[in-house]
Amino acid sequence: MSRGYNFSAGPAALPTEVLQRIGEELPEWGDTGASVMEISHRSAAFIALAEEAERDLRDLLAVPPNYRVLFLSGGATQHFAQLPMNLAAPGQAADYVLSGHWGEKAFAQARHHCTARVAASSAEAGFVRIPPRSEWQLDASAAYVHFTSNETIHGVQFHDVPEVGDVPLVADMSSDILSRPLDVSRFGVIYASAQKNIGASGLSLMIVREDLLARCPETIAPIFRYAAFADSGSMPNTPNTFGWYVAALVFKWLQRQGGLVAMAERNAAKAALLYEVIDASDGWYRNPVEPVSRSLMNVPFTLHDAALDGTFLAEAKAAGLLALKGHRAVGGMRASIYNAMPLEGVAALVDFMRDFARRHG
Ligand SMILES: Cc1ncc(COP(=O)(O)O)c(C=O)c1O
Fold this sequence. Notes:
Helix 1 crosses helix 6, helix 2 (44-61) crosses helix 6 (241-257) and helix 6 packs across helix 7. The protein contains nine helices and 14 strands. The longest helix is centred in the last third of the chain and has 21 residues, at 259-279. The chain is an alpha/beta fold. The model has no long low-confidence stretch (mean pLDDT 97). A seven-stranded mixed beta sheet has the order 2-10-9-8-5-3-4. Strands 11-12-14 form a three-stranded antiparallel beta sheet, with helices on one face. Strands 1-13 form a two-stranded parallel sheet.
């Protein structure tokens, strides 16, 4: 089978150019005479890669100087637990805003360490909208306010940074980081798993305001302290060197695309194509999310007759449109259209959807 358009939610499609480059230099990286997977993380060549990756990321997101960039092992789920360990004293309050599945997961992990509170939730409405800011009940003494900027399963996305006063804002941006420009200075911590817009799974990126690193209680073992990563170039132990290398290539690719302003324009155009076909289908296809909260990264949709789901997926796959099955929590389909999905891929999906509805109408 040749390479199709991959709508997987994660691990997700990577830019073809990046994959080709990895293929070319896998046996021998630069002038090291070895694979990037086979050299020391303390070698001059790898340290140069790590430093350049950080510079490129800072450049892409205009990260202010008082923020540290960390490349951490493990996925965002690990940081659901590790963040409260670092930012909150045991038993201290932390506010969680729930707009979907991943916010709930973050909240559940945090409860093991601090007094996590639900400050707002759209669970009752079935996670089809962002809870309106006017309904949030924030605790001014909370260690931080946590939210999920894009809910990968429910297809719900924040399109503005919420105002929360002096309490540090912490965002899980696993499924929309690098998809648009961002005012980093509005946040205490931004973190993301790599397997959507950054690279390969098993790596997380964190951007953390420097002063917050000092909050970690002495009782937390050094390997779980973010300060230990900040103090050692993210290398208190052997990092995920291959994942870091892939991320570095993706950052270069993003720069060649014109940076995040260009990505945001392209992502908006892709999402508009998909929502247009859904909304113009007279209920043949449906997306349940309130229009102002719709995600530009993950578009869940159902067919008017769920009995056609299997045929839709089989025909889509035969047409080279891959991984469109929705998450079991919401059913139906989901098209994940992260940075690496070209406009042509979405255009091919939209043509297929129109044709499928006509043939099975
Ligand atoms: C928004 C969001 N947060 C967290 C996670 C969990 O990431 P991981 O499985 O890498 O821990 C995911 C995974 O898809 C996600 O989409």
